[in-house]
Amino acid sequence: MIPNNPEPAGAGDRSAGTLVAIGAGPKSLAVAAKAKVMADLGLPAPRVVIIDQHAVGGNWLPLGGWTDGRHRLGTSPEKDLGFPYRGAPHRAQAAQINAGMLEFSWMAFLVAHQTYTEWIDRGRPNPHHHVWARYLDWVASKSGAELHIGTVERVRVADGGWTVAFRTSDGAVETVDGDGLLVTGPGSSDEPLLDDPRVLSVADFWNAVSRREIPASSRAAVIGGGETAASALDELVRHEVMSISVISPAPTIYTRGESYFENSVFSDPTGWPSLPAAERRDVIRRTDRGVFSVSVQENLLADDRIHHLRGRVTGARRTGEAVSLTLGNPGCSAVDHSFDLVVDATGGRPLWFLDLFDAETVDELELALGSRPDVSSLENSIGHDLAVTGLSQALYLPNLAGFAQGPGFPNLSCLGELSNRVLRSAVDRASSRQAVSR
């Protein structure tokens, strides 16, 4: 068992308990790096323990099952782990904390690898996924992040906090205790719509790409209208496919808004909770969910093999040598379409982490929500600190915070503000525990 002990002397002030983070991606590393900066300044900060099944930045590498690593990041890398470099968990020391976070910036990474000038001269392109993973790994190393590689098998509430059990590569089961739990990542990418060799999950698709085993197809379909589907489509057009249908419920394939006005909503969530619910949903729908990045849209514009089919897939079955998908639209009769290759790129299950919770933990969550946990109840429960309101044990769910707190939290648009809120909460909760114990 990994004890919940403070770090060795000289490691800074880690008097704000322990925060366990599932997933070694940008959200967890943004929190870990800022906690390191705070502790080095002598400020209270939690010990951050990160657990990941694969590696740092694993979901940006082929081994994570979400990409082959060769496609480009949909967000500017200048929106790095400290962006937008405004505010801080300790507001009086905000300038010092943000200056410290510049040491973990995208620019600092390029300078350290002597590639900054080249990146500027090439027009500051978005990096390939595998390069973004290298940046995250560099931050993890530079910050001394406490990382454990293993598959999380069980999460339970315990003694006012959390106990997370994970299995290492040698089969051993270890546990780590924490005062708070941060859940990141999209979960598994290996669950296809239909168990059929002609229907590929995201992981199946990228595995086939890496093995150069994408079959020639006369009529292919990509299900999904978001960035996961966009990356798959961007790859599929490079193969021998006669026609490709993009299936999504939207009337068309939307392009992500990249003007100042759209971007500012993502970078600065101030005032977001005061917007009417319908307007918040509309902003998310138009700019984040079910949209392709501008770069992918530009790549696909001239390819006349690509078409859009509006509808939600309500059924799938094998029919001879083809896969038949049933598409439904409100107010219309269901229609069947046949394909010889289907890529299910609808993305991960938002509530994948509930599979890890034991029965008692699910009960605690249900009591806090006042109903069985579902996407709607959890989205509405996320407070300013990105944690579930009403749950005594801090459960931070930034991937579900878009509706309640701002559309930038589930993605890479305001990682610095995300870390501010999580760390401020961890410090405040630790102070409250200490006051009660006196």
From TrEMBL:
<keyword id="KW-0285">Flavoprotein</keyword>
<dbReference type="InterPro" id="IPR036188">
    <property type="entry name" value="FAD/NAD-bd_sf"/>
</dbReference>
<dbReference type="InterPro" id="IPR025700">
    <property type="entry name" value="Lys/Orn_oxygenase"/>
</dbReference>
<keyword id="KW-0521">NADP</keyword>
<protein>
    <recommendedName>
        <fullName>L-lysine N6-monooxygenase MbtG</fullName>
        <ecNumber>1.14.13.59</ecNumber>
    </recommendedName>
</protein>
<dbReference type="Pfam" id="PF13434">
    <property type="entry name" value="Lys_Orn_oxgnase"/>
</dbReference>
<comment type="pathway">
    <text>Siderophore biosynthesis; mycobactin biosynthesis.</text>
</comment>
<keyword id="KW-0274">FAD</keyword>
<comment type="similarity">
    <text>Belongs to the lysine N(6)-hydroxylase/L-ornithine N(5)-oxygenase family.</text>
</comment>
<keyword id="KW-0503">Monooxygenase</keyword>
<dbReference type="GO" id="GO:0047091">
    <property type="term" value="F:L-lysine 6-monooxygenase (NADPH) activity"/>
</dbReference>
<keyword id="KW-0560">Oxidoreductase</keyword>
